[in-house]
Amino acid sequence: MERKIISSALILGITAIILGAFGAHALKKVLTEEALVTFETGVKYQMYHALFLLFLGTTALVSDVVKKKVFQLVVVGVVFFSGSIYVLATRTITGIDFRPLGIVTPIGGALLILGWTALLWNLTLRKK
After folding, report:
1. Mean pLDDT computed over 75-101
2. Minimum mean pLDDT among 44-48, 65-69, 85-89, 113-117: which range?
3. Which domain holds residue 65?
4. Which ranges does the record mark as transmembrane (predicted)?
5. Residue 64 belongs to what H/E stretch?
6. How confident is the model at residue 70 (pLDDT cuts 50, 70, 90)?
7. 82: phi then psi, degrees, rounded to nearest 5
8. For the packed helices 104-125 and 33-58, what is the interaxial angle rounded to 10 degrees?
């Protein structure tokens, strides 16, 4: 499980760096300042959670069952949250009108919160 979590963290980190550079250079010329800030929010949250998964994959403080649940919450949360933000921020150049499905973003955010909360809950319940 640790190898899968760490590999996923590295993929999220690598793609966050690529998307951040893409936003800072290529998208800067075609998006509004507001859309760029929105795009950057997706990148930041993706990177934060890549680092979170690195911690999760290397810690011995929780069981593999807990790691798996937190991992699933975080990965789906990042895809929903950051992914929907990328689509929303670039809709003027992609032509994809994602606004009717805008509920995906807060669902993704809720999943990320649940991932952090699940880890906290299990650390709190853990016997010393």
Report:
1. 88
2. 85-89
3. 2-125
4. 47-63, 70-89, 101-123
5. helix 64-89
6. very high
7. -65, -40
8. 30
Cα(22)–Cα(42) distance, integer angstroms? 13
User: Distance between CA 57 and CA 55 in Å, rounded?
Assistant: 5
- How many separate domains does the chain show? 1
Q: How many CB atoms lie within 10 A of CB 28?
A: 12
Which residues does 97 contact at the CB level (< 8 Å), separation at least 6? 91
Whole-angstrom CA distances from 83 to 2, 4, 51, 58, 61 are 24, 21, 17, 26, 30
| 55-74 mean pLDDT | 96
Q: How far is Cα of residue 1 from the mean position of the Cα atoms in its chain? A: 19
pLDDT at 127 over 80: no
Q: How far is CA 37 from the centre of its chain?
A: 16
Mean pLDDT of 91-117: 89
